[in-house]
Amino acid sequence: MPTTLDWSHSDPESWANYPVMLATQRGLTVLGADYSVQPGLAERWERVTDDQGREVYTFHLRQDVRWSDGSPLTARDFVIGWRRALRGRERGEMVDLAGAAEALAAQERGAPEAEVRAALESVGVEAVDAHTLRVTLSRPRSYFLARVANVYIFYPAPAADLEGRSDEDVRDYFDRPRDGRPLALGPYRVERWDRAGERVRLVYNPATAFPPPLQPGETPAPVITLMKSEIGPALYERGRVDFVFMDSAASLRMRRPEDLQREPLLSTYFLAFNTERPPLNRPEVRRALARALDRDALMAGLLPAARTSNVLLPPELPGAATPEEAARLPGYAPEAAKAELARVPGLDRPLRLVYRQGDGFLPEVAIAERVAAQLARVGVQVVLDARSDFSAEISRRSAEGPRVYDLYLRRLGGDYAHPNTFFTLFEHEGNHQTGWETQAGGEPMARFERLLEAGDGEPDEAKARTLYAQAQEVLVGEQAVIAPIYHPDRYFRVRARLRGLDVDPFNFLALRALRLAPATEAQAGAAP
Questions:
Q1: Which of 120, 259, 272, 381 has its CA 20 to 30 Å from the CA of residue 329?
Q2: How many CA atoms lie within 13 A of 240 on its CB side?
Q3: CA distance 294 to 432
């Protein structure tokens, strides 16, 4: 269930808001089936670098796009939306805009309101005219067009509805949907949000410029109700709901229904090392442990399918590693691992492996048990520690300073279709909790970040891909901060009468292409 409907102000728990935001709104760009950037609200754009080294985009908006009340989309809607985002709860996401750092700093130090407003007005988002938007970034960012497709705080906000209103009125506008508000651009708008009952009712938006791709006999779904339920699979079996996530990996091993579907995610599940704690403070030890893992055996029989991998970037991602690059990263070599580890002092104590407690769509318990068994074969004993306070535990430090775990298991999901989104977790300010910023005086991480910075600023895609491959080599190969295991998929069930209902590669329910099958086919597929 969403935590807010205000897509500009957003929320730290923004992942929960995506299904509704993606159904009701749109970005300047969209992603094609191959994850390439395609026109969205902007029909075209130009990109140049100015004499200050800043990247300047000029977006030409589609003139046929209307809000759900029939009013036209304008460039001013982006200006208002992005300025609101710079005052919202995820304002750090806007830092790439020219002038954003100054506006954020003014807010952080509690500057007078007039100074904050002046700083916001200087940020690099400008309405040249009603249908032309100029965006200036503080420096070239190769991921920008991919981000604005998927990260919804970059979506426009209805300026005519929001400008001049008090903060309380704006809050009410989003918190209490009524009279067709809040406005939408996508194929659906929110009609009702029942927080207590944890339900959201969406209705079809006939004014949308983005209708579902109807085939003969198909019709748009007029109403969609999203609900949170602990007994979703049971409701699906009884015919009470038409879609359900299969959130139990254990259940998938017992019975695989005929209507079970799978969506490959842009995501990676990995084993991480506490690089500060001996003997894992030595990269050769971490590489040896990575070579002890037989990924295919780790995943065998746990899921209907598993895309095992020793690389961080999923293969579908633009810029993913080539087979030659993947071969240079630690792969399964048990005899070499055993020989390398036999000479290591300090491995006489068990290593503590921390993972999330509970059953989910990742078979974490089984993977943890198999990791322990495989490491035992090369002479390394592992103690398993399932934690309900996983995030707190991997960040907990000893009295001497270093973190107290040895190994942990974690999933990393992409926020947008670009290598950058997989690397940011492992930068100095990222929430990786591995301590690798301390290794070799910080030189490896500094080199890693220089490669990322060069890739992020490189306009040539082939050259950028090479730089990201080199960054992956530092992280996964040379330093072996993590050992990738597999790229997760999401499983779900959906009635045949619903077409185009899917899960997107970012692990969100996708409603944009939803339509109903012809009546005769819908009736035939009605019974579970």
A1: 381
A2: 10
A3: 24
